[in-house]
Amino acid sequence: MDRTCLLASAAVLLLASAATAATAAGPDNAADRSCVVTLLGGERLTGTVAQLDSARRLHLKGEAFQGEAVVPVEKIASLCFGDVPDAANLGEVILAGGGRLRGTVTAVTADTVALDCAAGRLQIPRRAVRAVNLVAVAEVLVGSDFSTGKFDPWKGRAGTSTWAFSDGKANFKIACAVGPVITSTVTTDEAFTVEAKVLPVPTGRRIGLEIRDSGGTTLGLISFSASGASFTLTSSGISDGRNASGQLDPKRLDAKGVILRLINDPRKGMATFWLDDIQLGECKARPPASGPKTVGVDLGGLAAIEYARVLKGVVAPGQLTVAEGIPADGAHIDFANGDCTRAASVALADGRLTFDAGSGQAACKAAVVTRIVFAASPQVEPAAAPVPVQDLVEGDFGRLSLRLVRMTRDEIIGRSDELGEIRLRSAGLRQVTFAPPRTE
Hints:
It contains 2 helices and 37 strands. It is mainly β and 440 residues long. The model is unreliable at 1-10, 15-31, 237-242 and 378-384 (pLDDT under 50).
């Protein structure tokens, strides 16, 4: 009786029938995935989804009620399916609108990109895809967009340099090399990685990366100077700051530039400095410092910065982050060995990539490709009848805003202005948040 009153007070209908009770007790019920529905008043219902009807009412089956419980979605705060592991060490599809979907990219055609995940196969229209990363991608905490001629979220150090933007880079002419030429702020108490691509290497001059806490105390400053094939590494502000020197392959100091990387791992108490894929030094890091931190890029001579960014966690060389060098037309293909090419057309099927690089058709194993960046698509005209309500669906693939039109125990079906119809298996779902009702 108390349970019935609880449900009634939350505007939940009880529909008892022999047919639905028999279904709930049937052998297929063992395969149903249990969920928890949290109502706006805080009450919770545990059961399995039977359906979402055309009136946007959710039908549930469960041991706590005989037959079905029917709940209008405007009374639901959340629908949680429980924990679903993230799609770790997999690729992702970057949508033209900025969204990201994780999974295994299995096919690319002129019309669609296929992404496999626990929630099923997503057939994403090619016009809605900006880039495809075929390997794991690091999360970017602070990025850069120098190709647009903007420093934000970085700032240039006043009085120490003059700069100009060209060829998608920030070009610096150092007047007084004191401190970093650009800085930004990151707020995290976890491990993070600072990296910047600098070109060409200022011969005989210092280049480096630094980290300071909110009070200005140096947590890590590692600089690198090269002359010919020799280098000197200097670290300061770290408990066992020291110098080191060694030899480098001169080819690493050519006009293509180098990638500087400072990994700050307070949990392990270590800071490491990398030049491309060579670890130049490792030092003990200061204890973890809470609050915002200032990160900076040092330049001691004429040079350009192609990008500067802060990445979440310990990011080893070779792990992808964000797409750089967006092409104006065609497609851009990056390979695991560092090579890249432009292509007029790209197709991926059965683990093999074929492309037209201008001199005829070429092919390779998909395993040697890290990223495909497509040219910016022309703006697609909005649909005559845009999706009126957007429900938020979260799972191992990430999150999608959809207008849910159907839900059963096995799958949900929704529609997106950007992606069209989407079908997802409940096995890969984590949570659904229904959009609030519209007020006219």
